[in-house]
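Q: My labmate handed me this sequence with no annotations at all. I'd like to see what the chain might look like in three dimensions before we decide whether it's worth expressing. Could you predict it?
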Amino acid sequence: MEGIQAVFDYLKRELVMFNELHEFVKETIQFERSLISFLDTAQIKLDEVKELNAHEEMEEDAVSQEKKLYTIL
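A: Here is what I predict for the chain of 73 residues:
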């Protein structure tokens, strides 16, 4: 804990370094939030595609079963 306290003490004395660190942390947080937002959007689109594919597969199975039925008759 003494190590981190030394860093805080240093930043209190060196406001330029504090401001630089603050700006870096702020930009990093903004970047991470934009990545999370992008991933959320990508997940929604992926879920939509999966749902669409599931419906298409069900339709293909139904058509295939109809063809088999007509061939038997």
